[in-house]
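Hi R.,

As promised, here are both runs. First protein below:
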Amino acid sequence: MKVVCVGGGPATLYFSILLKLQAPSHDITVLERNPAGSTYGWGVTYWPDMLERLRLHDPTSASAISDGSLRWRDGVAHVGERTTTHEGDEGFAIGRHKLLDILARRAESLGVGIEYGREVPDREQLPEADLIVAGDGANSTMRDRHSGHFGTHTTLGRNPYLWLGTTKVFRSFTFAFAQTAHGWIWCYAYGYSGEHSTCVVECSKATWQGLELDRLPQPEALRRLEGFFASLLDGHALIGRSGLGGPAPWQTFRTLTNRTWSHGNLVLLGDAAHTTHYSIGAGTTLAMQDAMVLASSLAEAKTIQPALSHYEHTRKSELLSVQSAARHSAQWYENLPRYIQLPPAHMFALLGQRHSPLLPHIPPQLYYRIDRAADQLQSLRRLKQWLGPRLARTLQHRNSARE
């Protein structure tokens, strides 16, 4: 089979690895528009169960990814001058550049051709192929050429956010909430190497505008943010995207879905097919899981169209709970004033429960007490798991009817 992958991200590279492992005779080419090594980004996270799945599919790349990752075991939350720790939260992070390098080397060692600096503005400019994989991100050119067919839908979040790096190495997954004259601003920080960490800053739009972060040049914006998180950074600098002369590249998150994921022999992969809010730390994991399912579907179905149908059905089903969790996680931060004045341990506990569809509809302190009780009583825990989604749907329906 001749396969062309558009976009050289983790999903397409991993897919090409898995397909080559199934059948070395496959002719696979990955086309990446940027030069080799020029990717922008800091670290990406993944969790222990994902590492096990990587080991099952390709032990060689899994070992290299594990060796190149930084591991943490605890979660820490700083709320103003108050700090609380949740022990036992385990996860991993790896630099995006390192992850891409590992996957590219592994793919090339198996015979995959990777062509950098290849801009592909139109499907007609691609070489002939049995299968075209569009893994060119949330702004996919391949998908947007057929957006009517795919049924692409985008929902914008409310809060501006900024993806940064820092030389402060965080050994725990760290949250920090700082109060300003214009409201709260917060960050998520985690180490991904022995030298650097990712630091994602977020706030409400009103706070963003009140602090003039919407108009400050990037160097001035970074210095202001360093002041808000001075105790967290311990004198380390925040690092932005190089070469920007204007304002810092703040964004609002785009949750993207598609009604269907394939068009003839063209199939969507990763962020081109779906996005999930960064606050659950699953974007790269979900993209690589897409690759796993697409590769296995092609192996089992033998022909392309049944394989693409099986891939889409399987992944849409698997993503339902994750997308729900991401939606509620984003809404938790968008409604931060509802939780920020709780005692630190209570607030951090509800931060961990932010994926719950029930939480937005129950007073936070009452939810906290129910959650603590559920930890002690198995029958109450089962009731909560059963009742939560049902009550949430009922309340959401009532609210929609009132509107």
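And here is the second one, sequence first, then its structure tokens:
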Amino acid sequence: MTRRTDASTTTPGQSTLGEGMGEQFRVIAELAGDIAFSIDLPTHTLRYLSPAFSSSFGHTRDALQAAIAGAHEDLGPLGMVLAGSTGAPGERRTQEIDIRNADGHPVGLQVISTIVQDGDGGQSLVGLLRDLTPQRTHLADQRRFASMLNHEFRTPLATIDGAVQRLEATAQAADEPTRQRYRKIAVATDRLIAMLDEYLSPDRMAAIGKVRQPHTIAPGELLEAGAAQVREAGREATVEADALPLALRGEPEGLRLALKVLVDNALLYSPSGSRVSLGARRSGNGVEFFVRDEGEGVPPEDAACIFDKGYRGRNADGLAGSGLGLYMARSIVDVHGGMLRLAESNGGAEFRLWLPALEDGGQQRLASSSPSSDNRSDQ
């Protein structure tokens, strides 16, 4: 069954390969562990197939040729993809399929292909076959590990939760500081259980890899999610936005989480009746978001360390938290080729989050050449 199809266009002039250069690319692909192929068009005659195809899957070159002709059940999905490939020369197509090896075991394959012009004026379908078994095994290991963590953490947390509920129920004679300590334990326990439900639940783990995940999000949608979070907390949100590009490339859940951390901090470190301001504007080849509160701001002595793992500033005394929020947010942003920094502000704290935008042609430029390369100080 075909699971995914992407198409993109290569740079003009790159679709014709000489024989010597084609051989070099085959060698490079095979050194990387991929299986190269070349098929004559329109006859769909298999011209070249890496020897690793037979050693990896147990099927012969003739078996693949039969599959292209529609006469081989185990390799049927691969044959259908190769026989049905169409498009303009240089158009890159990526598909994920399942076949069966010679022993009858299922194997996931990624098929990357394009049509090239031959030197004699004809055309060939060339590409790579990539065994997805290691990737799928890794994902399965991740799910098992997450499930184990979920179980190992949930059991003691349930014990703590039950114990603190009993303590609260029988604490009529306890003094106020003791009751407050019970309440802090209960709140912290609820927070940890909620994190398990959100990030390590069996349902969430089972969904990973089953469907193609969204890989773009509109800047306005991300900004509105932050504003909604402020309003849900009973606070006033002001939003400033210039004309923005249509999309950012990235994992929407991760980007929402990064912005959520900044809004959480703004709500936590500012007076309950104060406003939280959010905004977004074009900046270079991307979009810069800001989240600004009306609190006391980040103490100067903490500014250089607030993104460090487990670091909590001096103004965090008595407030819930683990010192991981900003560290996690910056890690997410870094993965997406963006930057997160603390900006200079006359009052309150202001964080700025820069993310690369999709160009009109669908390409994404990363942040390495951006003038705002210092994540810790304003420019």
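A quick note on the second one: The mean pLDDT is 79. Let me know what you think.

Best,
J.
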